[in-house]
Amino acid sequence: MDVLQLARWQFGITTVYHFLMVPLTIGLSVLVAGMQTAWVRTGEQRYYKMTKFWGKLLLVNFAMGVVTGIVQEFQFGMNWNAYSRFVGDVFGAPLAMEGLVAFFVESTFLGLWIFGWDRLPKKVHLACAWAFSLATIASAYFILAANSWMQHPVGAEIVDGKPTLNSIWAVLTNNTALAAIPHTIAGAFSVAAAFLVGIAAWHLWRKRKTDDEHRAVWRSSIRLGGWTGIVAFAVLAITGDVQGKLMFEQQPMKMASAEALCHTEQPASFSIIAVGDVTSENCEDVKTFNVPALLSFLAHSDFTTEVKGVEDLVTEYQARYGTNYPDDPQLGELAGKPIDYVPNLPVTYWGFRIMIGFGAISAGTGLLALWLTRKNKIPDTKWFPRLALLSIATPFIANSAGWIFTEMGRQPFVVVPNPSGVDGVWMFTAQAVSRISTGEVWTSLIALTTLYAVLGVVEVFLIRKYVRGGIEGVIPPKSDHDQEGKDELAFAY
Q1: Could you tell me if residue 101 is inside a domain?
Q2: CA–CA distance, 357 with 363 (Å, rounded to integer)
Q3: pLDDT tens, position by position, 118-138
Q4: Would 185 be classed as within a structural domain?
Q5: Which of 67, 165, 174, 436 is the most buried (most CB within 10 A)?
Q6: Residue ranges making up the domain that contains 298
Q7: Is 275 helix (H, G, I), strand (E, B) or coil?
Q8: Count of the separate structural domains present in the chain
Q9: What DSSP line would sit under 301-360, residue for residue?
């Protein structure tokens, strides 16, 4: 593999790995703050125990997220310095804002929350929990604003051949970002919801035949996770529809590749599943099961809109952006070669369906959990906790598939041209890579992948340890915490 392929593999591996931690941190931080709010308002011990138990798991995951996230921005200088030089004036602003929010607000209030249990007034301590959780959402907002600028560049003009920021407000209110933010946050809540349902279901089943003093904790956690998962999926469906309509306007090739739509159709059918090779030049070789006119509705809210196919879009892109890469040594083997405007169709086609399918499975498990725990019932079948535990993985898979589709669907561009924006504010991925050797990229790729594998083992070990330890693992049995919310130092994280 050449430098470009290796650099893309490295960024893909580290980004997908890091994003396993991010949604759980965002969703769980808000839910834990909600649990603590319920405890402060009612004084019920089950809410205090829920806060301590789920808060411990949140902290383990947050720590791993910080460690794995640090590498992300370093990679822009390591493997993508040509990209950094081209877009740095615009891209650096939202990233700087995210850094300030993440390292100052998140870290400050998380520290106060961790060590303030027996030192701060209850309401002040609770405010720290909410400040931390809202800061995680703010951090996600700035990151998504930066990413959305790559998907739909706005608020910039060309000066000396490079994009220059002329409106930070336009970048922060980019309609692509405003659609991506609620969708991503809803995905984070779906992850946290499945996490609650799976672990709580296992604990309920584990002590189903004994008088478990913490049963109310696990049942409340399941109920909270179930309702959160259902609401999150509804928000995902609504915001996903908004994103689809923006995709139709801003990145029509991505929409066509999501359907492996070779030829333009009016109206266009939505493919449920395909049998055959979606990359085949002869579209008739692929058998699809379609919903008539649904793709037209997803694109433009009516059942008659024309949706352009890959072949027609390739012709349009060649006319706008050229048929061949520039004869530039920076492009290596691709210099002067024909540009392939078609993304990896198997990845985009199946990634889109994996995102939707696994998201629906997660919501379905939450709905089942609510049904089995209705009227104070306790599930006593062995299959349910197993299903709930396995379902923890489904929203993680859906989130990862969605991001892989989003990023690979915009190839061969690293900055996608804005159809109504400033001419010249776009960049091919092949032009963005650093001038380094394959050996250097192989070294960092192997080192980072190995490090992340080790960190993965550590996180699984710690999560498993505290999950199996249950409430007793975070609250010593001899202390009730019944008097005025006092907390021993030993309880502090």
Answers
A1: no
A2: 10
A3: 899 999 999 999 999 999 999
A4: yes
A5: 174
A6: 181-429
A7: strand
A8: 1
A9: SSS---B--HHHHHHHHHHHH-SB--S-GGGGGGTTPBP-----HHHHHHHHHHHHHHHH
